[in-house]
Amino acid sequence: MSHLLTISLSSAILVPCVLSLRQLPLSLTKASISSSRNLSMDSSDSQHFQNVVVMRHGDRLDNTEPLWVSTAARPWDPPLADPGKVRAFCTGRKLRSQLGFPIHRVLVSPFLRCVQTASEVISALCAIDDDPVNMTGDGVAIDPSKLKVSIEFGLCEMMSREAIRLELAPKDGNWGFNVSELEAMLPAGTVDTTVERVYQELPQYEEGVPGSRIRYEKVIQALADKFPSENLLLVTHGEGVGVSISAFMKDATVYEVDYCAFSHSRRPIFFGNNESFTAGNFQALTKHGQTGISYYPLSPITNPV
Ligand SMILES: *[C@@H]1O[C@H](CO)[C@@H](O)[C@H](O)[C@H]1NC(C)=O
Ligand SMILES: *[C@@H]1O[C@H](CO)[C@@H](O)[C@H](O)[C@H]1NC(C)=O
Ligand SMILES: *[C@@H]1O[C@H](CO)[C@@H](O)[C@H](O)[C@H]1NC(C)=O
Ligand SMILES: *[C@@H]1O[C@H](CO)[C@@H](O)[C@H](O)[C@H]1NC(C)=O
Asked: What is the annotated signal peptide range for this record (predicted)?
């Protein structure tokens, strides 16, 4: 995996609600489908799976409006375009109906497009009455007790010129991410301000592409270990989604990640008598092309019988 994967910047305005995203490949055992926050509740079976979904943000405004950067106060941090909000909300709706397990916790990159994406997804996941006419979370009443969300700097964009052009990066090195302002954009009642971040601050600019790939893998693992009894949704950037496949699927090389594409990985986890747990390795279950991620080999190699 020496080349950068292609982050789709297609400006085609899709109506994602009518796209038929095929179902996630789910071959879950009964034990992995937990309807409560406590995966260790099913005492009849001590093995459970912890699920981690890693998702890319929706359509960014500087893609649909190339002139946006010329006047932007923060040209390194574009918001979502309107179709991106629709795509994010509708992807949240699909996660809710198709995953087969609840999301207990959402962790999100501090970049504006990711916070806005997380906000839409959370509205869909927590909507009290899911009315199919609603295409965004605006005005949708939610039950905020369903999940918790917090900002994680370690899920940020690749801090390198391949992802953020040198001339767009802040001259004074101040990226200006204000956590309380970002939290205020998330649906009321869902923010968990007690979470200690894995990355207390942004990685240095020019961490390099290999460096950011190592970071994404470390952060996914660290967050899973931090919340072993919870299923997680990580809202991040294209490269982070790519890493969630290439790190957890043998010999997979990711070459394209669409807006709002998501991967699903899981690991077996065993809880001890006290707070202790033992976990197996993550395995990515997402199939090529099913949820917006394209990778080689295109299908699992099967031996002819
Ligand atoms: C979680 O499961 C443990 C072990 O079965 C139990 O003691 C505890 O009360 C449960 N916690 C919740 C919040 O349900
Ligand atoms: C759908 O959105 C409208 C506002 O656009 C809102 O008034 C309505 O309550 C929403 N429907 C649901 C079921 O939340
Ligand atoms: C973050 O934003 C809040 C609300 O606008 C403001 O009160 C606070 O001073 C800001 N913090 C920093 C470090 O800029
Ligand atoms: C409980 O955890 C401690 C370490 O935190 C460990 O030493 C001990 O063996 C554990 N006890 C059981 C019964 O698992």
From this structure: 1-20
* 269 within domain boundaries: yes
Measured in degrees and rounded to the nearest 5, phi and psi for residue 260 equal: 60, 15
What is this structure's pTM?
0.82
* Best residue among 177, 178, 200 to mutate for probing ligand 3, ranked by most atoms within 8 Å of CB: 178
Tens-digit pLDDT profile for residues 249-285: 999 999 999 999 999 999 999 988 887 899 999 999 9
H or E element that contains 171: none
The rounded distance, in Å, linking the Cα atoms of 150 and 186 is: 9
276 CA to centre of ligand 4 in angstroms = 7
Question: Is position 80 within any domain?
Answer: yes
Q: How far is the CA of 228 from the centre of ligand 1 (A)?
A: 13
Number of domains in the chain: 1
46 lines ligand 1 (CB under 6 A): no
Look at ligand 1, atom 7, and give the residue with the nearest C-alpha: 41
